[in-house]
Amino acid sequence: MEDDILSGKTFKVCLILFLLITFPKRADGQTSVNTALSGTVTDAVTREPMAGVAVSLENTTVGTITDAKGKYSIITSQTSYKLRFDFLGYEDEERVIVPGKRQTVNVSMTPSSIMLNEVVVKPAKKSYRNKNNPSVDLIERVIRNKDLNRKENLGFYKFGKYDKIVFAVSNIGNNAKNIGLFKDFSFIFDNLDTTRQDGRKNLPLFLQETESDFYYRRNPRSTKEIINAEKTINFNEYIDPGGINAYLRYMYQNINIYDNEIFFLTNKFLSPIASSAPAFYRFFIQDTADVEGTKCIRMFFEPRNKADFMFHGFLFITYDSSCAIKKLDISFNKGINIDWIKDVRINQTFSKVQDKAWILTQDDILIDFGLTPKLPGILGERSVSYNDYTINEPIPDSVFKGQLVEKREDMTKKSPGYWETVRNPPLKSFEKNIYSLVDTIKTIPSFRRKMDLIMLLTTSFYTRRKVEFGPVGSFLSYNPVEGYRLRFGGRTTPAFSNSIYFDSFIAYGFRDGLTKYNLTATYSIPHTTIYHFPVNSLKVSYKFDTSIPGMATEYYAPDNFFLSFRRGLNDKIYYNRTFLTEYLNELPDHFSYTIGYQLTKQSTGGNLHFIGSDTSSIREFTRINISEAYLNLRYAPNEEFYQGKLYRDPVPSKSPVLELNYTVGNKKIGNDYDYQKVRFSVSRRFYFSIVGYSDVQFEAGKIFGTVPYPYLFIHNANQTYIYDRFSYNMMNFLEFVSDKYAALNIDHSFNGFFFNKIPLLKKFRLREVATLKVLYGGVSNNNDPNLNNNLFRYPTDVNGVPLTYTLEKKPYIEASIGCSNIFRVLRVDIVKRFSYLSLPNSPSIGIRFKFKFDL
How far is Cα 475 from Cα 484, in angstroms, rounded to an integer? Predict the structure, then answer.
């Protein structure tokens, strides 16, 4: 399935570490937990469960809050003899516990009335109302003061930033080091971490540190981050480090509580202090607290609908007229339809700078990835500290020129002493050991063998240092013209050379008896790998191979085994002998251009023929010559991606991607016809808060000149059973051609917005998807073979029935509704075609599937 299995929001380093280290816990289900507490908290009067009750162990920092059903659980290795329960409007409760044992402690809390200065908080009632509610009054004051308290209200500011990300295999079983799989490197279990999740053993294996300077200007609004130093675990042979960094930034995006919508874990969450928050959240004042010398009101909040993309937790609001956020401790409901996430904790602390604004000084995010609480998973923690704030001092315009994020050339060459001075706080002992631990692991032969197997399973390539073989998924395939097709191929790796790369294959079709082949050489002009952005390269290739007119795949090689299963007629094929030379230059601002020349001698196979339209003299042409020069321009501001073995997997963003292609064919350069082609496209993802997001693409093209159908735009069709985003899934190959067209493609994911509200479906974490594809185009009179006898006839079946058409005066339309996240990896769509249903062999409705990981 090649790279699609890891597309979108997938995080390859997590998968690699998970596959390498995952193992069962002890057969008896025991762990190293010293004290395990659980129970239910209820109202002593109404007997109803109480949500948001603070549960804590005396003389420790260990604690939690009860969920919507009043339940709580604490697992800890810290010693305490008392368990405390407190909730504003109720008497505090304490229970004696026995350290080192599993215990169930249920508590009924007695209502009381308390006074918070001039605000009287009465016992909670069964019904919750915003009117005359002091908690809502307080949060509305917070909302009114947002613009005064947020740092973006300042004219200028700058600060230093230390960013640390740690990934560990979580929930390690006691007998892990005794498993034969780890006999060669059992020493890694001497570096376990038990501090992040009380009582649970975690094995840290990935660490990334970044130290940078950040600049902000309000008018015109500009930001700039300059990365001074970066240090990370090096798995370059197996993963794309730049792509990993991109996904880390995507998954751990900065959370600004003052924004109305917060983008987190590929979804938009409504902030608890958004303008509309009182309509979607419930708020409860609990008590007062001292936070770093600032008196605050502690407020608990929760979503009215537990299935919506919203947070719950605590806000600490300053006890003064500013009503600013001093601290927050939040998470989200486990019932939210976000997969692979077992737990999330977000902690932020703010400090007031020069009496001007409340500035974020510490930001900690912990995410526990995995399938179930009992199985091992991946624990990721990002900790960011901010220091040396300077506010309202003008920053020169020159600082903001260039890219939003710039990296100093020597950022990876900083000395150990440099890192000791910028780390805040210092690394823990087990974190310090990660760098040397991983370096040692990589020298062990058995580790390399296991990683080679993992890479084969996840990328379809088998690597032998200087050469890799694949894609394995294309070694065997089938189509009616070639029959069974065997292919063997490979390419060199950066270990062979950073300057020149070779890529080749040889294939044989048992039905047509022809051998196909390819040889490509790519030269990297800056002598850096062609798999890292930005690329500056020159490519030359010669290939003899087949292609299906109108078939363009998103993430699969065209001869992938899984694409061998197709519906309907599939007996038309091209044989292409192609020479290509191409120059690609990617600039740091994500503008790129490609200049190329391609000469193709194209002939037909199966039931496809080049037949002249002149009825007085029917003639079949054996071959056409396509000699084209082309220029591709692409601009993708702020684009980030993971570089896979075959394709780049883009990290979703709100920035558009624009592409322009200009192609010229001329008889003077060996082409059979004179023409020019122009094609333009723009695509972007739009987020709609709790109702999901849409991927939208608009495309248009025009041909100037007179050409037969092989030179026209042959619209992308899909006769496989795998759903393809950029093809028309109910269109047949070579069914429609145009010399001018415009197309709109919308793919919307509702993120479980409807399914989450259906009790029987909610537990399956399914997600609704819907698509709409509209294509409008046509063929000019000069390119219509029915009006121009100098052109080829449109293809027909064996009985002479036409199979290729133009779009006349109405668009081609198809739409689908579907369900994704089935068994965590499968998407299934029911696709309906709405136009041109009277054409021969035109399908009306069908089912398509696609394997894809989502969060």
Answer: 10
